[in-house]
Design brief:
Blueprint: H1 11-27, H2 32-58, H3 62-88, H4 94-122
Helix pairs in contact: 1-2, 1-4, 2-3, 3-4
Amino acid sequence: MVNKLRLEDLEVYKISLEISNKVWNLVILWDNFSRNNIGSQLLRSIDSVGANISEGYGRGSKIDNARFVKIARGSLFETKHWLTISQRRKLLSDTEIKEILDDIESLLPRLSAYINYLSSSSNKK
């Protein structure tokens, strides 16, 4: 498979990086205990989204790519879990949570559409 777009041009990748940076900018301000326990889990899950999109993109087949994008989508749901924990423990404000969740809800259908594209085009071979 020859990719016509660079990884950096993929909308799902760019959005995942934006969300990741927003989360980083919030978590970095937390106290050490919160940052080391909840913050590290939250950051790992959101960073995993872009990392899995990247890895799938570089795998060379649409089947492998779709598999990694599914993992990315799972990491996005994990991120939602850690955001809920962060909100309940009053580490993030309702406004901060809403902004990040809105971004996630915007990315989820795009990831699903990308998976569908990769899956349907790989079945046409």
